[in-house]
Specification:
Elements (H helix, E strand, L loop, with lengths): L1 E9 L4 H14 L3 E6 L3 E3 L10 E10 L3 H14 L14 E7 L4 E2 L4 E2 L8 H10 L3 H13 L1
Antiparallel strand pairs: 1-4, 1-5, 2-4, 3-4, 6-7
Length: 148
């Protein structure tokens, strides 16, 4: 089983309900065990800004799914909850991003791990450090490896 951190966010519809439903779908998958859930915080939109505020958090899971299989499952959950990909960084019913997958570094067209913009986003770092304070050292090591 691998330790994985997933960013979760919603800014359309009933944001709290969307997040709860996404967590329920994750719990239903027998390849995933939710270990920790951060506080959910309200944040300003990032990137494309003329949109409603987000609710954001981070969850820690254990999984035996490969990174690509996990990505596929998370995209299925987003689809089930009505996510439409019309505008880059645009509004969404749910957003599920793989932030970290164990110690893996992946840089493919389909998937980038660690999440490439997580260091720029307080709405990711704050909840991540809340549930896993000791990860700060690991984040610095990843950042150094990626920047080369």
């Amino acid at each position: 089983m691998f330790d994985v951190f997933i960013g979760i966010g919603s800014n359309l519809g009933d944001r709290e309900k969307n997040i709860k439903k996404a967590l329920e779908y994750l719990e239903e998958n027998h390849h995933i065990k939710i270990e920790k859930i951060s506080s959910i915080i309200e944040t300003e939109p990032w990137g494309y800004t003329p949109q409603p505020k987000y609710l954001n958090g981070v969850i820690k899971i254990k999984t035996d799914l490969s990174p690509l299989d996990l990505l596929k499952f998370l995209q299925e959950v987003e689809e089930r909850l009505g996510r439409e990909r019309k505008i880059k960084y645009g509004p969404r019913t749910i957003d599920l991003d793989i932030l970290l997958y164990d110690d893996k570094i992946i840089n493919s067209a389909q998937l980038k791990i660690p999440h490439p913009r997580m260091w720029e986003r307080e709405f990711v770092l704050k909840p991540l450090l809340e549930i896993e304070p000791e990860i700060e050292k690991k984040l610095k090591e990843f950042e150094e490896k990626i920047k080369g």
